[in-house]
Amino acid sequence: MPSSVLPLADLGLPAVVQEFGELFAAHGAELSLVGGPVRDLFLGRISPDLDFTTDLDPDEVLKVIDGWADTHWEIGKAFGTIGLRKGGHTLEVTTYRAEQYDPASRKPEVVFGTDLVEDLRRRDFTVNAMALRLPSGELVDPFGGVKDLHAKVLDTPGTPEDSFSDDPLRMMRAARFAAQLGLQVSDRVFAAMTEMAARLEVISAERIQQELIKLINGTYPVAGIELLVDTGLAEYVVPEVPALKLETDEAHHHKDVYQHSLTVMRQAAELESDAEGPVPGPDFVLRFAALMHDIGKPATRRFSPSGAVTFRHHDVVGAKLVKKRMRVLKFDNDTTAAVAKLVELHMRFYGYGEAGWTDSAVRRYVTDAGDQLQRLHRLTRADVTTRNRRKARRLAESYDDLERRIDELAEQEELAAIRPDLDGKQIMALLGIKPGPVVGQAYKHMLDVRLEEGPLSEAEATERLLTWWEKNKPAETGNPADN
Predict the structure, then answer these.
(1) Domains defined along the chain, listed by start
(2) What is the model's pTM?
């Protein structure tokens, strides 16, 4: 068994790790730091997680930490996991396991084990199947995780077929690690993922969603998506993405929509701001919208007799499709609405440079984008993937001009919070009506007036309202002066 002793004091680990190991040793028990925290040591970074494994069962763990931990929780006890806090650190300790899965079930059948190496054998990948015995600092690496890390290869401790049969979500995790760590799956892992892709159907949408978010937010999200598509896993997660591989022939030339979408996602990620900026990265909403922005194209592609290709209304169709997919994946309503809005608006800018926009059109652009304006700025810029430098420069300059005009109007009008010059109460008082649909119609009209004409005085706004009312008031309402 490959092993060596690592000096804990030189690894940058918090002192609580050594203290925790000594606590278990004093009780005659084994304890090891395991998985991601050990892997990250070899990547030159400190993991935010502190995961441990032990030969004690959960009840015995509770006895050991009694009086030492500041607090603890037992929500994962049935799976052998006890969570606790000590000082400012959160720790999780899990009993050695030899999990067995029912191929038809979504949940593991947990069997506690007694041996560290056997516990490591059942873990997903060799790079996560390393442990640091505590308090000695002995590295336990029976499956060559360090070697695979250096080679940037993702492989399984046992056969990938057994690993993925035990937990099919591990195939998604392979793509996630490709995105996060820049690792390439081994040939046998790729083959098993391709052969077993349909096994994802037994995994809950919530678990798949969480892996997808981590993948999209990774350092190399394009690599993760390409692995999903190339193995067929994407057909069970985001089938709209492989569908972007539209067939072309000599008579009908158009941009490779699939590769274009991957490029847009990469470029959108590069446009994210730092933590203090308007779109701190990694930003899932921006990146996912970039990936999905053209998913309406397959359904809207049309050929003209001349060979030209059109995708009319693919933005509207795409917004509907992305809502449907995100609901299947159990995303929350706010995230779904944000992504769909970006997909629907991603074409709005085009034409600005040629025809120019009135102030009214600029106001509508900002109002329609709402709280997604900063993301829309980045998505629109990222959507330029042309190799024609002159065209790319012209589009960039046009969008620079649009952003300048938005900033100028915002200073003049507080554009981001545009409201009609008359509120609902004023409308009801002026028209002598009670709350109801007619108030909403009048309010919408006054918002349109505000967008078209900019700020008006109260007298001017009243005149616009009364002019509209003369043409639109219900017959039975009568004249406000009669009420």
Answers:
(1) 1-146 (3.30.460.10), 238-417 (1.10.3210), 424-482 (no CATH)
(2) 0.81
